């Protein structure tokens, strides 16, 4: 089968035993080095996408989903049905090795998983008597509609709701770089709301710097702290806005590591926590801890070089030392006061209701 | 029917029957407005109704009028209005309006029937200020030959608790009026707390007379069950994050009394 052409990416370095069931790859050994491009069954735009994922050039769940859908559009445009094959079945089979390739470059996010499910369903629903050109046009239109409705228009709807919750004189705390939260803050600033923002950041990704750059460019007053100072800064804060990577069926919020910490401390100070999330990120999985399913990033990212000295340069040789670079964590619904989606403002525990309504619609 | 007449009709409804819920009076007025409305299109009708609801909210800024009006509008439009003849459509809407009014007029009785099973023989009940729903509940429990005693907070600034105590005494229920500040003192003696609500918000919390939040926090600390009785037309489309987030017009009712927000306490 096609899958045999894709080599399995090997794990790198010592894995902490609690997370030994997860993969840990090194950024210095991307999967693309092990496959020869012309002979491969992978479409070049997918190879490019995989490389962008594994090197962290495309990051953030909205960005990754949109990039994935654009790459799939390219694939569908270049696709031609082989003789004696039907487009719906053959195209779905063609996508399987691409998806497993992308999964090896970087584990798929929940939003990407939902997007892929949607595309596969649309492809299988193409009537078999439909001509190839027409079918391709229809699929491209479907993908454009998905991106437009679930991502672009959803962001607009969420901003409208969220701006009601931002009052003059507010001090808003944000964590890391969420495209949706940045969009909301910029819109609120355009609508002349008077507020200031505290950006909390954490190593090793330091994504807060990107958020800071975007907000300061608009003219919003910002303060920048590291996550270790969050209990110092929280008495000043009136609201916390968080983005989400996925919302699980039991109401838990899966987001960048450090989010549950911030929600916990905010609860201790009685500061309301608002999570902003589009409905396409809702997934049927249930998780109560961050161990069962997570992503391990390159452990070498934790090594820092200061004044020419790198302390952990040969950490691999120390038998009792392991470096753990977690990417996600889950926040229980007790710490979240409100979830803003394009369907309106819901409590965290109403996620299964939204999932049920979505399933009925489909 | 112009806006002045509408408000007059509403005020007459309220004064004729002091026991009627303000939302029910508002809906009766809206139904009358609908019957006398002269607009030529469905869209015009809806616009007029929305304006009428806005006018009523100015006259009586309580949460119940706001939620009742919105629910009324939603209920009557929740039907096929595709008949090209406007008068037919209007008749359908009026019919549904009457149905809605009939249903909600019975709601207090239904609430009382469901709730009085929570009151066991020999119970000591604490309640806050004067709520007609709670009165109905206690009335039906007394009619069921249950023996219980009631503590009512006097509920300043309008001393509404004293009115509640009078009404309960007339039903031969032993009642004691306590100071608002005595809630913490009395909590260990009572078995359960029952309060009414002005509005029920989307997060599951309630908006009620000032002093209810303290009572709820106290009862949680003492592990006493805290029950809220409210009709379904009080459910309002609001999601306040804290006390500040409640719109100011809901905090000051036409009777010039402040309201507070009661958010369900965190799961400890």
From TrEMBL, chain A:
Q: Just give the chief location class.
A: cytoplasm
What is the role of the protein in this entry? Acts as a component of the translation initiation factor 2B (eIF2B) complex, which catalyzes the exchange of GDP for GTP on eukaryotic initiation factor 2 (eIF2) gamma subunit. Its guanine nucleotide exchange factor activity is repressed when bound to eIF2 complex phosphorylated on the alpha subunit, thereby limiting the amount of methionyl-initiator methionine tRNA available to the ribosome and consequently global translation is repressed.
Where does the UniProt annotation locate this protein? Cytoplasm, Cytosol
Family that this chain belongs to: Belongs to the eIF-2B alpha/beta/delta subunits family.
The protein in question is named Translation initiation factor eIF2B subunit delta
Under InterPro entries, the record lists: IF-2B-related, IF_2B-like_C, NagB/RpiA_transferase-like
Spell out the Pfam families in the cross-references. Answer: IF-2B
Q: Which UniProt keywords apply?
A: Cytoplasm, Initiation factor, Protein biosynthesis
Can you tell me which residues the record assigns to a coiled coil?
Answer: none
List the GO biological process terms: animal organ development; central nervous system development
UniProt GO molecular function: guanyl-nucleotide exchange factor activity; translation initiation factor activity
Which Gene Ontology terms of cellular component type are present? cytosol; eukaryotic translation initiation factor 2B complex
Q: How does it assemble?
A: Component of the translation initiation factor 2B (eIF2B) complex which is a heterodecamer of two sets of five different subunits: alpha, beta, gamma, delta and epsilon. Subunits alpha, beta and delta comprise a regulatory subcomplex and subunits epsilon and gamma comprise a catalytic subcomplex. Within the complex, the hexameric regulatory complex resides at the center, with the two heterodimeric catalytic subcomplexes bound on opposite sides.
- Which domain of life does the protein's organism represent? Eukaryota
Which species? Pygocentrus nattereri (Red-bellied piranha)
UniProtKB/TrEMBL annotation, chain B:
For this chain, one GO molecular function annotation is: translation initiation factor activity
- Keywords noted in UniProt: Cytoplasm, Initiation factor, Protein biosynthesis
Q: Which residues form a coiled coil?
A: none
Q: Which range is the signal sequence, renumbered to this chain?
A: none
Where, subcellularly, is it found? Cytoplasm, Cytosol
InterPro entries found in the cross-reference section = eIF2B_alpha/beta/delta, elF-2B_alpha_N, IF-2B-related, IF_2B-like_C, NagB/RpiA_transferase-like
An example GO CC term for this entry is: cytosol
The text of the family note is: Belongs to the eIF-2B alpha/beta/delta subunits family.
- PANTHER family with a match to the protein in the record: TRANSLATION INITIATION FACTOR EIF-2B SUBUNIT ALPHA
Report the protein's function. Acts as a component of the translation initiation factor 2B (eIF2B) complex, which catalyzes the exchange of GDP for GTP on eukaryotic initiation factor 2 (eIF2) gamma subunit. Its guanine nucleotide exchange factor activity is repressed when bound to eIF2 complex phosphorylated on the alpha subunit, thereby limiting the amount of methionyl-initiator methionine tRNA available to the ribosome and consequently global translation is repressed.
Q: How does it assemble?
A: Component of the translation initiation factor 2B (eIF2B) complex which is a heterodecamer of two sets of five different subunits: alpha, beta, gamma, delta and epsilon. Subunits alpha, beta and delta comprise a regulatory subcomplex and subunits epsilon and gamma comprise a catalytic subcomplex. Within the complex, the hexameric regulatory complex resides at the center, with the two heterodimeric catalytic subcomplexes bound on opposite sides.
Q: What is this protein called?
A: Translation initiation factor eIF2B subunit alpha
Encoding gene per record: EIF2B1
């Amino acid at each position: 089968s096609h899958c045999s052409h894709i080599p399995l990416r090997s794990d790198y370095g010592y894995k902490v035993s609690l997370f030994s069931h997860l993969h840990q790859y090194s950024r210095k050994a991307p999967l693309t080095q092990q496959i020869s491009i012309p002979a491969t069954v992978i479409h070049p735009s997918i190879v490019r996408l995989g490389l962008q994922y594994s090197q962290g050039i495309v990051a953030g769940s909205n960005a990754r989903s949109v990039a994935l859908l654009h790459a799939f559009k390219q694939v569908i445009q270049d696709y031609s049905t082989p003789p004696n094959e039907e487009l719906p079945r053959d195209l779905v089979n063609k996508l399987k090795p691409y998806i497993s390739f992308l999964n090896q470059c970087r584990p798929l996010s929940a939003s990407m998983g939902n997007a892929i499910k949607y595309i596969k369903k649309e492809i299988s629903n193409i009537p078999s008597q439909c001509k190839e050109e027409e079918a391709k046009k229809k699929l491209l239109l479907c993908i454009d509609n998905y991106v437009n409705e679930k991502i672009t228009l959803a962001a607009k709807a969420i901003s409208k709701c969220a701006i009601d919750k931002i009052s003059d004189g507010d001090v808003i705390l944000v964590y890391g770089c969420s495209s949706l939260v940045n969009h909301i803050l910029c819109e609120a600033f355009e609508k002349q709301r008077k507020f200031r923002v505290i950006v909390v950041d954490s190593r090793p990704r330091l994504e807060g710097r990107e958020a800071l750059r975007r907000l300061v460019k608009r003219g919003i007053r910002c303060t920048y702290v590291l996550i270790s100072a969050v209990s110092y800064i929280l008495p000043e804060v009136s609201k916390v806005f968080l983005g989400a990577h996925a919302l699980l069926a039991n109401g838990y919020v899966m987001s960048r590591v450090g989010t549950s910490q911030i929600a916990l401390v905010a609860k201790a100070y009685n500061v309301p926590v608002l999570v902003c999330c589009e409905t396409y990120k809702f997934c049927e999985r249930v998780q109560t801890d961050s161990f069962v399913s997570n992503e391990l990033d390159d452990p070498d990212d934790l090594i820092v070089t200061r004044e020419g000295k790198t302390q952990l340069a040969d950490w691999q040789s120390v038998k009792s030392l392991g470096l753990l670079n977690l990417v996600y964590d889950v926040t229980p619904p007790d710490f979240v006061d409100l979830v803003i989606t394009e369907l309106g403002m819901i409590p965290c525990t109403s996620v299964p209701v939204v999932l049920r309504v979505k399933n009925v619609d489909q | 029917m112009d806006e002045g007449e509408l408000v007059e009709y509403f005020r007459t409804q309220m004064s004729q029957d002091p026991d009627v819920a303000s939302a029910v009076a508002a809906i009766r007025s809206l139904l009358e407005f609908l019957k006398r409305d002269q607009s030529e299109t469905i869209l015009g009708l809806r616009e007029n109704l929305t304006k009428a609801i806005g006018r009523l909210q100015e006259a009586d800024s309580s949460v119940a009028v706001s939620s009742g009006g919105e629910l009324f509008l939603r209920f009557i439009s929740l039907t096929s209005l595709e008949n090209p003849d406007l008068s037919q459509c209007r008749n359908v809407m009026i019919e549904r309006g009457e149905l809605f009014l009939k249903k909600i007029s019975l709601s207090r009785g239904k609430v009382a029937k469901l709730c009085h099973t929570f009151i066991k023989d020999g119970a000591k009940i604490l309640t806050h200020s004067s709520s007609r729903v709670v009165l109905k509940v206690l009335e039906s429990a007394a009619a069921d030959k249950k023996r219980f005693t009631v503590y009512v907070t006097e509920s300043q600034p309008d001393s509404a608790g004293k009115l509640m105590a009078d009404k309960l005494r007339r039903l031969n229920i032993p009642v004691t009026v306590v100071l608002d500040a005595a809630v913490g003192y009395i909590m260990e003696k009572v078995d359960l707390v029952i309060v009414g609500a002005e509005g029920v918000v989307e997060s599951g919390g309630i908006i009620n007379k000032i002093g209810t939040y303290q009572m709820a926090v106290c009862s949680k600390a003492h592990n006493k069950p805290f029950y809220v009785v409210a009709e379904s037309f009080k459910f309002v489309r609001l999601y306040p994050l804290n006390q500040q987030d409640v719109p100011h017009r809901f905090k000051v009712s036409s009777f010039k009394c402040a309201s507070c927000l009661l958010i369900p306490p965190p799961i400890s």
